[in-house]
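Homework help board

Subject: predicted structure for assignment chain

Our instructor gave us this sequence and asked us to write out the predicted structure in token form, then describe one feature. I got the tokens but I'm not sure how to describe them. Can anyone check?
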Amino acid sequence: MLLCVQRGLPHPSLCPSTSEATQAACVAQRKGVKGPSSLDPAVLSVFVPPFVMKEDSQLAGMNCMTLGKNRKRSFRKKRERPRVELGKGVPGGPRGPDLEDVSIPNGVDLLALPQLCFPGGLCVASEPREDCVHFLVLTDVCGNRTYGVVAQYYRPLHDEYCFYNGKTHWEASGLGGGAAGCFVPFAVCVVSRFPYYNALKDCLSCLLTHLKFCKDFEVDNHIKDFAAKLCLIPSPPPGPLHLIFNMKPLQIVFPSRADPESPLIDLDLHLPLLCFRPEKVLQILACLLTEQRIVFFSSSWALLTLVAECFMAYLHPLQWQHTFVPILSGQMLDFLMAPTSFLMGCHLDHFEEVSKEADGLILINIDNGNITYSNDEEVDVPDIPLLAAQTFIQRVQSLQLHHELDLAHLCTSTDVNEGRASRRAWQQQLNCQIQQMTLQLLVSIFREVKNHLNYEHRVFNSEEFLKTRALGDQQFYKQVLDTYMFHAFLKARLSRRMDAFAQMDLHTQSEEDRINGMLLSPRRPTIEKMASRKSSAPHAAHRRMVVSMPNLQDITVPELPPRNSSLRKIQTMECGSSRAVLDVPPKSTHTFKIPEIHFPLVAQCVQAFYADCVAQLSKAMGSLAPENSVLLARYFYLRGLVQLMQGHLLGALLDFQSLYKTDVRVFPADLVQTTVESLSAPERTQAERTPELRRLISEVMDRPVDTPKADDRVKNFELPKKHMQLDDFVKRVQESGIVKDAGVIHRLFEALTVGHQKQIDPETFKDFYNCWKEAEAEAQEVSLPLSVMEQLDKNECVYKLSRSVKTNRGVGKIAMTQKRLFLLTEGRPGYVEISTFRNIEDVRSTMATFLLLRIPTLKIKTASKKEVFEANLKTECDLWHLMVKEMWAGRKLADDHKDPQYVQQALTHILLMDAVVGTLQSPGAIYAASKLSYFDRMKNEMPMAVPKTTSETLKHKINPSAGETAPQAIDVLLYTPGHLDPAEKVEDAHPKLWCALNEGKVIVFDASSWTIHQHCFRVGTSRLDSTDFLVGKDGTNRPRVSEGRCESTTWRFSSVAQSKVMSLLFNMLSRPVTRRLQLECLTPHSDVGKGPWPAGTGDSILVVNMNGSPCQELKIDGSFKETGTSFLGFQLMPEQEQLWAACAGYSDVYVWSLQDLAQPPQRIHLQDCSEINCMIRVKKQIWVGATGLSQGRLKGKIYVMDAERRTVEKELAAHADTVKTLCSAEDRYVLSGAGREEGKIAIWKVE
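My token output:
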């Protein structure tokens, strides 16, 4: 932190010309005539840390509370100015400036800083003026910002104040008579890396109460002590902990960021809402989003920076990428001639000059709330999209922006700090509402961008995105899409960054968006959306709100709410529902009071301050409840920082290591690595002896260096211009957004190249792409009569509509949804159901004779009707025959395997068939399209039924790899039960299923509806072996997945008598270091006793006592170790007094009796099992996941074993690939995850 004291004038002994100008100015002020122009300010003193010099250590033995106050050491460091004339000083006066440069933080120019501290010029006054502050933002050449707070005050030029090193010099310079009654401005500027605007303003206000009335020679001491206090205050880590510091007479609060991704907010975000009408706020935001050349004007220098910073906060997480100079002094106005985008601020006095001299500027007057253009030229700034704008305006109008209205019914506080705390709490709540409101505005504008992204190839299809925008909004989006800000936004979306935008999008998405995340088939308007186009009646989406595992007797896709058919149309009820202020739950915050700092500032006093900090932090940590891990992590972080400053490096590392157990998000990896590298040899040796530090050092020093991607650019989709082989064709189709699944694209390639060379020319691809997009556009225009829509489910979509044909049930068009076929009759439009796909018994394509003509006819036989449906489809007959059979086969597979994804994939196949036929338009087009009849061919070639036991136990399947290019193996599953917390949304209270895929990807499902709650995010690049989680006081498991490879395997714990705390050690063969896991026992079993307890040690199980000492080692046989095999895990069955274990690579389960562990275990062989992969305990059963033979093929199998009888109750043919993981859900269901060949999750009922 840098502190600069700016004085209006350099000392007369150093600059006689300035003293003459000052005298003239003072005389002019007294006579009331126009004086000379403003004077040049100078930097008089600079204070930079460190403030404790080496010589201070000599006083370490002295009591810092009783040190004499006569000892003074100047912390003033002078910097040479070009115009200072050396050698003309007064005899006995101060020495000339030291030529040695001081250490100034990057981005701070001491030669330019005086102009910014006095942006309106430095002028003397004939009467005292009110103290004032303003704020600076300083940017270096790399774009890094530092922040300044400047406090200006005036001092009279009376003789008693005119001392410098104890001597009067103003009289010596001849100013005694002329300077009487004059007041000279001074300024103190604090420069920080953090935008603590309000906190530093309060600090400087406290400082000025001392500076205005002290002697000149005392100024440096006051500022030195002030600087030292500020530099000793640590910056709080992101989270709920704020720091309080006593800067008499005020208590100063240094707030923290809400989370690591959020900006630090220490200003009043409602200031622009007081200065501008909501429509003007939206207009300014539109200027920012389209990256115009913007200039703020105000008569208040402070408002220039504060209002500009508020708009920067409104854009979060989008970031302004261009020049940002909220204050320009009079000498800097030429900056406004820059041709690039910028945001700058000027005093209102320069408004006319700037308006006439510069072109193409947006001029924003903060004082009157107007927006104009330079030279009266109209700048093309489009409006914010109408629907988002209307909602924003209504929410702004509902905000309570005046604190006085909340205080009207309260008594006046007699404690100034209590009143300030109340005002601060109100402001914090209001800031939170405004942030949520502006964030929802951005989400409303850009929510559907994600629908046009291809994550694998980093492609954005801007042309298709613009086509989906309302006509009146397209100009806005065209300009925004070309900005640097939007390009950075796209990079964040394609990197799946879980920032504030992604979280708000997740929390506010509709059920339709959630379900679309599970769909493989292309999107089509739902019946409910069609109904919303025809009726202006509002539709309220009803969500299913539960907090427990659902009964999976009949899993159906939830009903979808409609999307707005046009962004330019606003329904009355929808607008009315948006008027209420966002219901933002109050975020609880905590404060920690920094101890008092004793002076003079010598090493011992500083060490005493650090010791007080550590003691108070330790005391605060001791009083915390065990489940308050978030706040505990902040205390660990702060204590680690303080111990670093003390030089206690090992203690600091231990505190930082504790962040892994509490909140890894605030773990300072770079700081820890630097600390480890600075350890001395004895300290490093001592650290290696401590298991926690040894692990920490290993993780920090061995972490991979983040290497930037070779090409992280965002590419815009373009049609190919050269012939494509298979690999290039797969990439192009994925980039287009048509299909992502590589297997489906391979079949599409075969279809398009039937009878030709195995490559696709650009014209064929273009024709195929156009056919696909035309079909999408036609589907959007499908309109059904209300009487027809009443016969269909709300979530049904019309995927294919035939031409008008003659059938045995009338003339009309055949329509296909994902559920049924029906006839849309002509004349008087009506609905005639043909059949649901589930009820079809046979589909045939035949020739009907009419006179001398033979007409291709489609015949469909159903189970519920004796009459066969016949339709003279003519040229469309063969295509409809393929499509209906594919949908019939997909429906049957979905029913047999309890997997709705088969229907979705069948829909993709039939739409691709339609596009292929439209592309080729040749006699062989139908044969080519038949290459996509994947499920129909599968049904005919492998008519194997699902085993009865499997079908009865299997309840549902979900596909975490939906939307990926290929199935991915499921490494870990974790179910977290639901709970109701008043501070959380009801949706967040639903039970969740956490699914870890390979390469460190995690997907979260809402277990009440089995829709995706959170799309794929990454936690490292390695495979996750297990999941770390914390158990909250409400009984909810809160996962905390650390980055990289987890350290242990899956374990299971049971309880101990009298709810004692059990230590369970589990040591894998490849990892010699174990960790101790302490778990509070929930259900005591007195019959189990107090130990001993088993622990795995690779090739054996080690039985330990409650104190951790080993007492027995369990092995299977002598050859077990020689095979290099290790235990997969073990399960304790306290009621049966059994210990179950399984080994990698074996097909046997081993059971020990806890009554006599010396006896060899019982060996249970699993029939048709090749290898066991996982094992869990569910009630009185053991579920074993393995690979085994089923119907003559190697598949994933699950063996359900009765613990009492020690027999296999069921063999379940679970997956097409091996069963990799098992998870219990409230002991009502078991979830299994498959390998990468299938990549699906099966849900099984527990009996």
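Reply (TA_rk): Your tokens look well-formed. For the description, you could write something like this. The radius of gyration is 37 Å. That's the kind of observation they're looking for.
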